[in-house]
Structure formats: structure tokens, C-alpha cells
Amino acid sequence: MSPLLPGQYYHIYNHANGDDNLFREEENYRFFLQQYHQHIDAIADTLAWCLMPNHFHLLVKIKNEEALLQTFPKFETLEKLLSKKFSNFFSSYTQAFNKMYQRRGSLFIKNFKRKEITTAQYLQTIVVYIHCNPIKHHFAKEITAWPWSSYQHIHTHFEELPFFREIFENKNSFLKQHTLKHERFIKYNELEESLTR
Question: Can you name the residues that pair with 10 across neighbouring β-strands?
């Protein structure tokens, strides 16, 4: 698994072990976000996210080396720091979840997935993919109907968010890209359903 590097964008995602769910009720989603911000905000800026019952997707930009060294001057290497922060986050959520539901063992699949993103086009694609994921997996029929993603915040505050203005140019383009992807997922789901009847 390639290490996370300072100053780079990553698509980060993970899934629950086996048939488990990461989130069984609304409070789980809220607690996950609370723990996430507590552990990760110091090392990365989160640009887009989506939480679904059994998995999640994040788009993050790891803070630059100077900022990380300033905040964590005593860490051996930045690679270990970044890995440790994510490990602590997953562990803290798992421990609380296990205690609440009287379960044991790991909750997440070991070694969360990460893909480095190196182009503006890829960034745009990942943002849209993340927000449309509930449609793809049949958790919602409309993007706006799924409350556990960054879509609504970005849509409402688009003009105040330089990153999104840069990669989408304008709000109409942001909406259009999401609509196109949404329609593709709906058509695919309908085709899939027709083949299993």
C-alpha cells in the first residue's frame, strides 16, 4: 500500500468487514464525523465525503510538509504520522461502536484504500462519484435525499468555496456533472433490475 504524501490529494475509502454495517442509526453517522474531525483535521483538509451504511468515501488533501512539521514536530516520519492518525481514528470509532452494540473484533476492512489524484479532471470525477454513490448502491434515488454527504453544503455554499470554483468553473457545471452521473447510475440500476427479474 503506497504511503500518504504531504500536499497531495487522495480518494480514501473503506468498507465494513463482511456483512457488517458501519452505521446502524443516525447517531453513528454523527459520531463518526465527530471522531473523524477530531483525528484527521490536523493532517488533512476534507473536500468531499459520503457515508453509507456499509462503507464511506472521502476526498482529502494532505496538509503540506511545513504545516505538518509545525503541528507535530516530534514525529519520527511524516509517513508514520499520517498512518497513525488514520489508524487512531478507525480504532476509536470501532471501540465505541463495539461497546455500544456489544460486538467484538475489527469493524473495518484492514488497510483502508487510497488513490492519489493528480489532475483537475480526476478531482472533478471523484467529487461527482462520491456524491452519487448512494444512487449507485440503491441507498437513495436522489442525491439531495441522502443526508450524509457533503453535496448539500457544497451546493449551498459553492461561491464561497475556491476549490470547487476552480475545478468546476461555475455552479451550473457542478450541478450538470452531478445530474449526468446520477442519470447514468439510475439507468444502470434499472438495467440491472430488469436482468434479474
Answer: 60, 116
